[in-house]
Design a protein that fits this description.
By secondary structure, this protein is of the alpha+beta class. It folds into two domains: about 5-105, Rieske Iron-sulfur Protein; about 120-400, Naphthalene 1,2-dioxygenase Alpha Subunit, Chain A, domain 1 (Alpha-Beta Complex), CATH 3.90.380. It is built from ten helices and 19 strands. The strands form four sheets. The chain has an eight-stranded mixed β-sheet. Strands 2-3-4-9 form a four-stranded antiparallel β-sheet, with no helix packed on it. Bound molecules: FE2/S2 (inorganic) cluster (FES) and fe (ii) ion (FE2). FE2/S2 (inorganic) cluster binds near residues 46, 48, 49 and 67.
């Protein structure tokens, strides 16, 4: 995981307070924005006497400890010790842990691995505002902290069969408990395919009555190794990124884009807004919340345990995706042990400039629709944009076609 760039915050999370505690890969760090606008990431405690640098004062060229004023720059050097004599050697000897950061598309990324850092790939969905003309691209970043190991969430991304059961049959059980009518169940999956690609794994599926010409097969969905998946549809693409906080916590990012007609009014301009997605309490089924596909997934995955004990599992034929992903992980770990770059690393500037993730048409029938609880069912259930459009009485079918499932009532 230390060979890849990971998002550590939405840029918008530094808007009200220019410092933020970041836990990632088991380390506690402080992210800050200095007064010249640069972001930096350093250890969370001051090397002088341990004060949290969360209380640090941003200056033009770094962050100053609030206690006795030691100042650190983005390269981890101590550049001022106000109470020590001028020219004191201590200043040269003090260093703080620091990591390179880069901002892209409203996210702040960090690289915590060995030098030289690979390039941060500028995925099309992150830079999309430059690509689409005549239409307005609106973006939002939702995050949720899930109390389980990141691998459980990734294995769910190569588990295409759960969609039919969890997101349709279980959803209907939820609707039944809420006294709402059931939703039509997805057409049966009759074939699934997994294929390795430059970025990771392409998953394809063929639904009953469909053909190999359907986009669910030709475009499929891309899992970007090791920890992202491109979901959603052409009009509402979503990049999901799973970042290990530590062994038993994962921060999940839902980077959502909405391609809107130009006349639609949106809630904010400027920074890509950030919102929190609530994690349901363990062992409790909170009925309206459980309509959301996102909540269904995280509740199920957290229920496997903080680090799921795989020695107890019984895999079947339909779990081939999980096997393929696990083999790929083992192979790439060996590559790193042998001193090589693992797969899906970018070092060629031309290639890193704009790798393209494909987003197909909606699968039609989409996710479960909401009835009296809101217009949409998955991450959109928590989206400030969707509630704004709803208040404006926007016709969702005109805006998104069948890409988002809307209840007209
Ligand atoms: S504890 Fe930070 S300067 Fe003293
Ligand atoms: Fe799911």
């Amino acid at each position: 995981m230390r060979r890849y760039w990971h998002p550590i915050a939405a840029s918008a999370e530094l808007r009200d307070q220019p410092t933020k505690l970041v836990r990632i890969l088991g380390e506690s760090l402080v992210l800050y924005r200095d007064r010249s606008g640069r972001a930096g990431l350093i250890q969370d405690y001051c090397p002088h006497r341990g004060t949290s640098l969360l209380y640090g004062i941003p200056e033009d060229d770094g962050l100053r400890c609030p206690y006795h004023g030691w100042k650190f720059d983005g390269n981890g050097r101590c550049i001022d010790m106000p109470a020590e004599p001028k020219g004191h050697l201590l200043r040269e000897r003090v260093h703080v842990v620091n990591y390179p950061v880069e901002e892209l598309g409203g996210l702040i990324f960090a690289y915590l691995g060995p030098s030289p850092a690979p390039l941060l790939p500028r995925w099309n969905i992150l830079t999309m505002d430059n690509l689409v003309k005549e239409e307005k691209v609106y973006k939002e970043i939702g995050t949720i902290e899930v109390p389980c190991n990141w691998l459980q969430i990734m294995e769910n991304s190569v588990d295409t069969t759960h969609r039919e059961f969890l997101h349709y049959n279980f959803s209907n059980y939820v609707f039944e408990r809420l006294g709402d009518p059931p939703i039509p169940v997805q057409r049966r999956q009759i074939e699934v395919g997994y294929e390795e690609s430059r970025y990771g794994i392409v998953k394809r599926d063929l639904l009953e009555g469909g053909s190999y010409e359907d986009e669910s097969w030709t475009v499929g969905q891309t899992l970007v190794f090791p920890n992202m998946i491109a979901t959603g549809s052409r009009k509402a693409p979503v990049l999901q990124i799973r970042v290990p906080v530590d062994d038993t916590t994962t921060r999940q990012y839902f980077y959502s884009c909405y391609i809107l007609p130009p006349d639609i009014s949106v809630p904010t301009e400027g920074d890509v807004p950030h919102f929190d997605i609530p994690m349901p309490a363990p062992g409790k089924i909170e009925w309206p919340l459980f309509i959301s596909n996102v909540i269904q997934d995280v509740a199920i995955l957290a229920s496997q345990g903080p680090v799921y004990d795989r020695s107890r599992e019984r895999l079947g034929d339909s779990d081939q995706g999980v096997n393929i992903y696990r083999k790929m992980l083992a192979r790439e770990i060996s590559a790193v042990e042998n001193g090589e770059d693992p797969t899906s690393i970018f070092r060629d500037p031309e290639e890193a400039r704009g790798p393209v993730l494909p987003f197909g048409k909606s699968r039609g029938g989409g996710g479960p629709r909401l009835s009296r609880y809101g217009p949409l069912s998955n991450v959109q259930m928590f989206s400030p944009l969707i509630s704004h459009l709803r208040q404006q009485g926007v016709d969702f079918e005109r805006v998104f076609g069948r890409d988002l499932i809307v209840d007209k009532k």
